[in-house]
Amino acid sequence: MVDPDAYPIIFRRALAQHLADSGVGVYSTGSYAATDRGIYTNGPTMPTTNDNCIVLSWLSPIADGRANMLYRVQIMSRIKGSSIAAENLAALISAPLDQKQNVPPGMNVSWCELFSSLALSADSSGRCATSQTFHFLGRRPQ
Asked: What is the pTM of this model?
C-alpha cells in the first residue's frame, strides 16, 4: 500500500508546474538535460550536477484562524555567472508569484507575496545564488 502524498509535496509540485508554465524553468519528475534550468521540489538539498537550478523548500505554515493558513516556501535559485545573473533569475522567479492571486492554481491560495530575499556570493564553482521566501495566504486543505 502506498501512502498518499502530503499536502506540502502536492503544493510544491503545483508551484513548480506554475513556474514551469510561466517560463521560469523546466519541471520534471525525471531527470534534466544539462542545459535545462531544473525546478526541484525536494529542497533544501541543492543538486550537485546542475549549475542553473531552482529548488523549492517547504517552511512551517502559520495558522491564521480556524480555516486559513499562511504557507511559506523558500525558493533557492542558483546560476553560473555574476551576481547580476542571480538577481535577474530572482526577478524572473518573482514575476509570476509576487503580488499575485490564485497561485499556484488549484491550491486555494488567495494571495502570494515575496516576504524576504537574500543574495549569496559565488561558490567555488562560480555559481551565485539567491534565497527568496514567499508567503501564500490560503485555506487549510480539505
From this structure: 0.93
